[in-house]
């Protein structure tokens, strides 16, 4: 209790604080009458008000971080919801300009957001280092003997005498306490001893807080050496794990050359089961991994069951139809295009959409493809009745019903001109219609049908339909550290909230009250809990009863009690 | 009768049970007659039993946990709150007002949930995961308890204000201590030679008791801001005070601020690790299903906010100047965010957790 009297005000650092505190540290705590320092007291002693102020600073910083984190739930984010951001920019151009400059469309990589959590981590270190040192010192200290003093004033205290010499009593008490897993201190020359329990409260709290640094290390490793992207694989085809074949590739910051493994993934087949209402019940991709010319893995990849090979993970992301389309230029007789065209669901009128680009002929040709797995070809009059953005010349509709491919139809519009792919990279499914102008022709092909001859002479064939599967592919070397951090955090959190720190005092001395007191001892037993005081009453009483039982003379042989008896 | 109808009927019975419990608990608070408290208790028992039957029917009929739709989620969360109330507070006369408010909130919550009713259906493939079941179960228990704790904190604030006013007028009446100007926290006291605001001292000494209406402050020396800084003990104004709290009005009928604070602490301390585990289980599932454990999805972001708020709450409790009122405000704001996360984020903001069109 004596520490509290040194009262320095916040905002006015005390000169020589450090040294004084360390002196106080050396002198106090070993005295029998001393109460153990609470974590808060320990902080005051070690860092003075500075540490206490950092705790407050930490609270404010964490609150600021929390407040800053609310913003992304209200403002759309570039990473999670790019369309939302575009909507905002269209609707409120002026306000969005301001928001953009403040980084509010990408809060989690904004410099000010980073500044907040870096400051928080810094304060955390300033708090944790002295606390950890104090804690470790405390662990060591409690096994040392206390300096002589009187019994402190305690909420629980009893005194009784037994017909045993003090050293016998010491031995028995020691064994009893040790069996109850109390951390025992040595007794001093006048028979005083302290024991402690519940060091896990502070230990757990420290573990909890330090685990955030492990977490940060994991996130750092991911950002530095991890990568992610998407792989699109058509049934029966093969995909090679390298940066070129990844779509929307997000490369690692360092060591890209050693981050890829170059193995091949083959998609044997892809199966989908549908429910009656048309929603997917289950999808399964049968996948082989070929590495160094050998088939090393055969596995079903499903949602929730990714493929994991040499640190690279493939997650089933989505699926769709892929049409084998070829384009022949009859003038030269050359096949100018022959490849799988992936068809994305979610187009107008429930159609799937894709793009064919033929850059090798002049003028270049582009096909805007609409696909229906169970299509109905409409007459121009029927098509005209659909008043949508496609205009009247889309002659295709998806028949309602389960999405099986029992009547696949491919409709396309042809554009001629400059595709614009020489000017810079384009997304695969993007056709620069602003550059190409109006479509020059339309056509319809089915797998059974003949090639469709366009007016400018190009012949388009739709030879085969298969499924494709899109995998999310990533390598995340920080994942292990992040998992370790999560486990440490939980392991620390629970005791930091539930364990109560408590100390007991034991003073065993010879009974000198009378001449008949030969070989008798007086025992003073006291206890204190810092948390869960109610539960401690029961524990204290239980311990008192056990001590009394062990120290009571055995009924048949009063002179030889067995201290090892449980 | 189809299983879905049976389930709806049982939930309706539960709703009536809770509504009765809320009303009778209020009567118990007003009249202090034990028969009202008994009625409230048995209504709550009926409500919880019917509620369990209602959710169990969904489980048995669909062969999955009862949180496939937002309606089911809300019903499960309200069961957690009702259950917590039944175990912790319903049988206590001094907590009757709190009981009434908690069941009132449950009744409103269930109405809000019922407005989102959807026929139960099998789960889509991504949702067929053990980790997800674990995640949602923990999230429901955690959210329900945090919401419950938030209600306790809100009532703590009401009671606290009321106790402050009583203290202020008591100090004003005292002949040995001059009345503080304006707000009661201007009064300062000395505890172990430290100058602290009166409320903090009261919190430190644990005065207020459980349910008693007497504030005994034998070792608290009252002074006002008038004392000089160098000699903070003025020669006058040192007196032991005994303040009687009248049992009138809402404030007078609530449990003492100390016991409300203790209850809120217990609930939040219990809920926090559960909520933490819920977030972690969700992250593990996210890693399996979507290939990322954390992506700042709106729901993830909001749960981080909630987690942060209650982390601050737990720290605030141990910090002078933060414990008491400020900590309680954090609890209330946290609980409001939980409600925001359950309804607003699910219905309005699109994301992987969205029940409306994800």
SSE topology sketch:
The complex is a heterodimer of chains A (566) and B (358).
Chain A: H1 17-27, H2 39-74, H3 82-91, H4 93-101, H5 111-141, E1 156-162, H6 166-179, E2 183-184, E3 192-197, H7 200-225, E4 227-234, E5 238-240, E6 247-250, E7 264-274, E8 280-291, E9 294-302, E10 307-309, E11 312-329, E12 334-343, E13 352-358, E14 364-372, E15 375-377, H8 380-385, E16 396-398, E17 409-417, H9 433-436, E18 441-445, E19 452-453, E20 459-475, H10 479-498, E21 502-510, E22 521-529, H11 533-551
Antiparallel strand pairs in A: 1-22, 2-3, 3-21, 4-6, 4-20, 5-7, 7-8, 8-9, 10-11, 11-12, 11-20, 13-14, 14-17, 15-16, 17-18, 19-20, 21-22
Chain B: H1 3-31, H2 34-62, H3 70-88, H4 96-114, H5 130-173, E1 188-191, E2 194-197, H6 198-205, E3 214-217, E4 221-223, E5 241-244, H7 249-253, H8 257-289, H9 298-316, H10 325-342, H11 344-347
Helix pairs in contact in B: 1-2, 1-4, 2-3, 3-4, 3-5, 5-8, 5-10, 8-9, 9-10
Describe the structure.
The complex is a heterodimer of chains A (566) and B (358). With 566 residues, chain A is of the alpha+beta class. Helix content of chain A is 33%, strand content 29%. Chain A contains 11 helices and 22 strands. In chain A, strands 4, 6, 10, 11, 12, 19 and 20 form a 7-stranded antiparallel sheet that branches. In chain A, strand 13 and strand 14 form a beta hairpin. In chain A, helix 1 packs across helix 2. Chain B is mainly α. Chain B folds into 2 domains: 252 residues, no CATH class; 78 residues, no CATH class. Helices cover 63% and strands 5% of the residues of chain B. Chain B is built from 11 helices and 5 strands; from the N terminus they run H-H-H-H-H-E-E-H-E-E-E-H-H-H-H-H. The longest helix of chain B has 44 residues.
């Amino acid at each position: 209790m004596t520490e509290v009297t040194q009262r320095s005000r916040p905002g006015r650092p005390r000169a020589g604080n450090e040294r004084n505190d360390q002196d106080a540290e050396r002198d106090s705590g070993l005295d029998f009458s001393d109460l153990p320092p609470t974590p808060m007291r320990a902080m005051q002693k070690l860092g003075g008000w500075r540490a206490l102020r950092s705790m407050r600073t930490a609270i404010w910083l964490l609150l600021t971080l929390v407040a800053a984190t609310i913003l992304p739930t209200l403002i759309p984010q570039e990473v999670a919801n790019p369309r939302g951001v575009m909507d905002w920019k269209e609707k409120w151009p002026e306000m969005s300009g301001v928001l953009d400059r403040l980084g509010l469309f990408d809060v989690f990589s904004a410099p000010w957001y980073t500044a907040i959590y870096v400051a928080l981590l810094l304060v955390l270190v300033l708090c944790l280092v002295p606390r950890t040192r104090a804690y470790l010192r405390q662990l060591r200290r409690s096994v040392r003997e206390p300096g002589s003093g009187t019994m402190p004033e305690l909420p629980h205290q009893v005194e009784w005498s037994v017909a045993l010499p003090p050293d016998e009593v010491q031995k028995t008490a020691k064994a009893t306490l040790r069996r109850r897993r109390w951390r025992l201190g040595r007794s001093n020359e006048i028979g005083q001893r302290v024991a402690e329990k519940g060091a896990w409260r502070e230990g757990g709290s420290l573990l909890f807080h330090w685990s955030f640094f492990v977490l940060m290390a994991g996130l750092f490793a991911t950002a530095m050496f991890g990568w992610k992207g998407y792989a699109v694989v058509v049934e029966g085809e093969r995909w090679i794990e390298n940066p070129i074949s990844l779509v929307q590739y997000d490369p690692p910051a360092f060591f890209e050359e050693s981050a890829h493994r170059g193995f091949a993934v083959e998609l044997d087949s892809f199966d989908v089961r549908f429910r009656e209402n048309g929603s997917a019940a289950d999808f399964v991709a049968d996948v082989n991994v070929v590495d160094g010319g050998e088939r090393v893995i055969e596995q079903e990849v499903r949602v929730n069951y990714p493929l994991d090979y040499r640190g690279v993970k493939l997650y089933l992301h989505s699926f769709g139809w892929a049409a084998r389309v070829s384009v022949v230029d009859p003038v030269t007789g050359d096949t100018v295009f022959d490849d799988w065209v992936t068809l994305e669901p979610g187009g107008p009128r429930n159609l799937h959409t894709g793009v064919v680009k033929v850059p090798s002929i002049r003028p270049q040709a582009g096909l805007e493809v609409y696909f229906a797995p169970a299509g109905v070809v409409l007459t121009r009059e029927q098509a005209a009745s659909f008043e949508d953005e496609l205009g009247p010349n889309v002659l295709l509709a998806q028949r309602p019903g389960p999405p099986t491919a029992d009547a696949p139809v491919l409709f396309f519009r042809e554009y001629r001109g400059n595709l614009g792919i020489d000017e810079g990279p384009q997304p695969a499914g993007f056709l620069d219609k602003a550059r190409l102008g109006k479509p020059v022709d339309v056509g319809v092909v089915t797998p059974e049908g003949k090639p469709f001859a366009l007016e400018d002479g190009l012949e388009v064939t739709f030879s085969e339909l298969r499924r494709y599967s899109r995998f999310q592919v990533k390598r995340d070397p920080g994942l292990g550290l992040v998992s370790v951090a999560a486990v440490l955090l939980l392991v620390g959190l629970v005791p930091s909230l539930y364990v109560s720190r408590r100390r007991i005092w034991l003073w065993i001395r010879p009974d000198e009250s009378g001449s008949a007191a030969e070989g008798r001892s007086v025992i003073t037993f006291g206890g204190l809990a810092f948390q869960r005081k109610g539960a401690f009453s029961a524990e204290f009483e239980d311990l008192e009863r056990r001590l009394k039982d062990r120290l009571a003379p055995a009924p048949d042989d009063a002179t030889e009690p067995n201290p090892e008896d449980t | 009768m189809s299983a879905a109808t049976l389930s709806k009927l049982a939930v309706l019975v539960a709703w009536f049970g809770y509504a009765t419990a809320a009303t009778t608990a209020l009567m118990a608070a007003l009249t202090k007659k034990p028969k009202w408290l008994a009625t409230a208790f048995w209504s709550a028992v009926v409500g919880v039993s019917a509620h369990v039957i209602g959710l169990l029917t969904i489980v048995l009929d669909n062969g999955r946990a009862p949180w496939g739709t937002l309606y089911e989620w809300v019903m499960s969360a309200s069961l957690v709150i009702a259950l917590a109330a039944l175990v912790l507070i319903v049988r206590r006369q001094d907590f009757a007002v709190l009981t009434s408010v908690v069941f009132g909130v449950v009744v409103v919550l269930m109405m809000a949930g019922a407005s989102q009713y959807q026929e139960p259906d099998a789960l889509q493939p991504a949702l067929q995961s053990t980790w997800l079941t674990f995640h949602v179960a923990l999230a429901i228990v955690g959210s329900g308890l945090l919401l419950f704790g938030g209600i306790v904190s809100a009532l703590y604030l009401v009671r606290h204000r009321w106790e402050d006013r009583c203290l202020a007028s008591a100090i004003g009446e005292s002949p040995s201590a001059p009345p503080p100007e304006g707000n009661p926290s201007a009064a300062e006291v000395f505890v172990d030679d430290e100058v602290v605001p009166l409320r903090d001292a009261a919190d430190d000494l644990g005065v207020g008791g459980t349910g008693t209406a007497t504030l005994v402050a034998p070792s608290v020396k009252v002074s006002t801001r008038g004392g000089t800084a160098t000699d903070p003990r003025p020669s006058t104004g040192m007196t032991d005070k005994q303040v009687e709290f009248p049992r009138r009005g809402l404030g007078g009928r609530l449990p003492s601020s100390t016991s409300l604070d203790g209850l809120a602490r217990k609930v939040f301390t219990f809920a926090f690790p559960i909520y933490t585990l819920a977030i972690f289980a969700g992250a593990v599932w996210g890693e399996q299903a979507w290939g990322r454990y954390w992506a700042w999805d709106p729901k993830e972001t909001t749960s981080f906010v909630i987690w942060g708020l209650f982390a601050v709450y737990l720290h605030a409790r141990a910090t002078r100047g933060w414990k008491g009122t400020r900590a309680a405000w954090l609890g209330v704001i946290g609980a409001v965010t939980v409600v925001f996360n359950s309804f607003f984020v699910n219905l309005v903001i699109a994301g992987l957790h969205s029940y409306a069109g994800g």
